[in-house]
Amino acid sequence: MSILDSKIPEGPLADKWTKHKNTINLVNPANKRNIDVIVVGTGLAGGSAAATLAELGYNVKTFCYSDSPRRAHSIAAQGGINAAKNYQGDGDSDYRLFYDTVKGGDYRSREANVYRLAEVSANIIDQCVAQGVPFAREYGGLLDNRSFGGVLVSRTFYAKGQTGQQLLLGAYSAMNRQINRGKIQSFNRHEMLDLVKVDGKARGIIARNLVTGEIERHAAHAVVLASGGYGNVFFLSTNAMGSNVMAAWRAHRRGAFFANPCYTQIHPTCIPVSGDHQSKLTLMSESLRNDGRIWVPKRIEDSEAIRAGKLKPTQLSEEERDYYLERRYPAFGNLVPRDVASRAAKERCDAGFGVNKTGEAVYLDFASAIQRYGKEKALTSGIENPSAAEITKLGEEVIENKYGNLFQMYEKIVDENPYKTPMMIYPAVHYTMGGLWVDYNLQTTVPGCYAAGEANFSDHGANRLGASALMQGLADGYFVLPYTIGDYLSKDIRTGKIPTDTPEFDQAEKEVTDRITKLMGGSGQHSVDYYHKKLGKIMWNKCGMSRNEQGLKEAIDEIAALREDFWKNVKVPGTADSMNPELEKAGRVADFLELGELFAKDALHRNESCGGHFREESVEQDGEQKGEALRDDQNFKYVAAWEYKGEPKDATLHKEELTFENIELKTRSYK
Amino acid sequence: MNLTLKIWRQKDAKSQGKIVEYPISGIEGDMSFLEMLDVLNEELINKGDEPVVFDHDCREGICGACSLQINGEPHGPDRLVTTCQLHMRMFNDGDTIFIEPFRAKAFPVVKDLMVDRSAFDRIQHAGGYVSVNTSGNTIDANAIPINKEDADDAFNAATCIGCGACVAACKNASAMLFTSAKVSQYALLPQGKVEATERVLAMVNQMDEEGFGNCTNTGACEIECPKGISLENIARMNREYLKASLKG
Amino acid sequence: MSGLIKSSIARKVAMALSGLFLVFFLLQHFTINFTSIFSADTFNDLSHFMGTNPVVQFVLQPVLIFGVIFHFVMGFVLELKNKNARAVKYAKYNGGANASWMSRNMIYSGLVILAFLGLHFYDFWVPEIVYKYVEFAPEDPTRYYGELLHKFESPIRTGLYVISFVFLALHLWHGFASSFQSVGFNNKYSVAATKFAKAFAIVIPVGFIIVALVLHFTH
């Protein structure tokens, strides 16, 4: 019997959440006033949780490393947010959203959590509209939807290519309202450096004021971690430069189990790397795949000629192109899920068909969509016998209306006109499904420490569907955590203020300052970025889109060696008692150097291919699916939760078996 | 390409700052402006100097963290981009580039090129929200149809990233474009109209208290805004404000 | 209501409204002056009316003076406040990249106009007041045209007038159109309104210049 208790309520799937809400303990309003909650991170999950907790009456302190809560990286989400509203009448329902999410996650998520997510999804849209979030609308004045990420219904709500921004600003506005009421104290340019436990419970954090360098103690009755994902362990990712694992990793070191660290989503449509100076990667919304066709040349000589600059893609005829997704997956074509599309691109590039100077890019071509739309538009605008130029012009206008901002962004970065020549794309690390293990109440294995949004592992299994991250962040923050945390806090109504002048806080602060001193005291050979880039290379080459036993074993050793070198030889200029971005980075990279090793260890132990985790040893041997990922439900139908035991390689595995009572496990096939 | 950078260095809010010159070489056109600064910082660190501090985060033009007055213009010479999206191909070999923090009394320098834009947050605290509880127990999202044109205008106003380029560009360091974008977003939507009067009064009042200058309609903000927020929003806020003052 | 007096927006609107009032006055002034180049009699008649009508003299004239004073005092106040909003200046400021010279230098075009007003008062208004209310000289309905010609005999004065009108054009170029925006007028008619305002900003000062030059060279 596992020591992990997921606390999934009894009863039929569809009733679990309602029943649970009806039976958990509540805190009366007068008592809420005496209870403090710390929320670390102010993205969709943290911002919405902070606003709702404050509105319920708790005293909330929020922490973010940016100068304003509004800058959290949720803001960069482009595509949209799913909700089972069924406004389009195309057969959507809570169950179908639940089903798609579990299937998309390759049956590695918890049924009850996912169902709850689907159940509250419709509420999110109501809530956001009430807050003044300007979603896209149809001419009739009602909300518009689009189909997204390889599902069969149109359930994605969007605000042009800036849905994440609009939703985050909605949550931020809800926070502002509570800040104005004095219920939220917002600590910006602050970073959590440790979790403080008193009598086994999370009772506060140690934070660094990034402007003054001061180390501060903050106490609370509960701590919510909504600090996002750890994609930056790869150095290059679509995450923001500051996105980091520190808050989650500090909690992990204090006893919170880390679940499924190897589940990483590699997004297929990013702008390829242009050189060594590259600091981050830019995502192009997945919605582009609705109209763009992905291809590489059929003949390897053509690819080589293109790489050498001797041939232009537009010179290749239809017959000379390999639309490999349409060829391999006739049913879904260019709309296969992210993991499938990413691996297929890597497969072609590894085979030598890549099309940019680094050989790591494939084409995303809008020429046929431009022609198709152009003809439609000519027809509907009553233009008879339109010329080829007219059709192209009309088609380009349609494309511009749909994706204008993305095309403009691409042109700015790559300096090529994507209306005239196909875009180049390549997969990049985008999202991490793994995270802190939480039970149904979103509580980690440290009592009083909760995790929400991308920071937890809960809802996406081994692969996340498009437009589901925003949904999960807001569901956790607005509708789940504020209820479930009350159950825990109801036992704290007589506790009174948590003091910070206790041995536990002394000890935690001492550990934090010792660590900073150690970081500042490196021999000064290499900059923090030097180590971060090295770590990223190891991760990308050995723990990236395709993994094997040998590579993972090497990665574990290499990361451990790199970490040792880092602590001896890192160079952090400046002082600890002032604004020092290099010191901030050093602390974050130090944690990535531990997480990376656990990541590889998790990937090594999971000898199956599921979702974003692809093990070369586990592929279909024959039949129609030959060469495709092979899941092993017999041996790996569980959540891998790792307990910290000192060195990451010594972490202990705890398994939470996954039971599927409402859904039949199938092989994901997009053929 | 080889460049000469003239960068504002300032230890902290209290210290005096000055322009310091740095030569830099080996810059490629494909680099973003911030990647060019990364190269400089890596050099400075390896030489044992303190790197130049500047705000940045998403590096894809949406978080609004990056700032920088580049050759006298916020976010540099390109249009509709933030500094992180500005590419070095906009410059020529041998150029001298001035890099300064966004200047305004309401945006005090924190260090080097980093400024404190919390005044923007406080304007938002004053009224940048709809007073609706986050419980989700509200009316159905489609219960109130909204004219597409209004919804689109509201969206366009709402795309403001709060970077402060409008203030930095304005000869008066006025925050009217920023404030009016938020006021407009809500004024255009039925959900926001309910509190429109209190909102515009509170937000403008806070804006004035923060010490921003007054708008003189030069239009510099609109030109420099990386998101193309329209001056129409300022006109709308003026209208809303006059209406509200007469009512209130 | 306090916002109507103190707030930045109220001040901006006040600038716009007083400016619009002065624009209207300018049109009226120009119309009368313009008659001088083709009909001395019409000019004398109109001037006589303006100079003796009690409503014009004791209601409109004080309102106008108040309007002028308000506009420039408020202009100075705002300029100082705005300068103060950026305590540390940019080492390099490329204002021309994003805003017209006119819009950035209203204070200077305004100062030139103010200086011109001093000259103009010295030339016409002060002698007029002295004539009517100090010396109580007998009213002569035909004296205005002659006085006007006398003033434009000097090439220096004519030159100063011309330069001032150029600055007036620069001031109006930004000020008139921008006042619509200030009072919240920005809709589908704005483009047309702006075009009208820009045309006005050219036509009226050029008209004044023509009057000055014609009077100077033809007599």
The class by helix and strand makeup of chain C works out as: mainly alpha
Instruction: Name the beta content range of chain A.
Output: 5-15%
Number of strands of chain C: 0
Which stretches of chain A are low in confidence, meaning pLDDT under 50 for 5 or more residues running?
Answer: none
Name the largest protein-protein interface in this structure. Answer: A-B, 84 and 81 residues
Helix and strand sequence of chain C: HHHHHHHHH
* Head-to-tail CA distance between termini of chain C: 56 Å
Report the total helices of chain C. Answer: 9
Gap between N and C termini of chain A:
39 Å
Principal-axes shape call of chain C: globular
The radius of gyration computed from the alpha-carbon positions of chain C, rounded to a whole number of angstroms, is 19 Å
Structural class of the secondary structure composition of chain A?
A: alpha+beta
Commentary on this structure:
The complex is a heterotrimer of chains A (671), B (248) and C (219). Helix content of chain A is 38%, strand content 15%. Chain A is of the alpha+beta class. Chain A has a 5-stranded parallel beta sheet, with helices on both faces. A 5-stranded antiparallel beta sheet of chain A has the order 12-16-15-13-14. In chain A, helix 5 (111-130) packs across helix 13. Chain B has 9 helices and 7 strands, in the order E-E-H-E-E-E-E-E-H-H-H-H-H-H-H-H. The longest helix of chain B is centred in the C-terminal third of the chain and has 16 residues, at 232-247. A 5-stranded mixed beta sheet of chain B has the order 2-1-5-3-4. Chain B has a two-stranded antiparallel sheet with strand order 6-7. Chain C is mostly helical and 219 residues long. Chain C contains 9 helices and no strands. Chain C is globular, with a radius of gyration of 19 Å. The chains are: A alpha+beta (671), B alpha+beta (248), C mainly alpha (219). Chains B and C meet through helix 7, helix 8 and helix 9 of B and helix 1, helix 2, helix 4 and helix 8 of C.
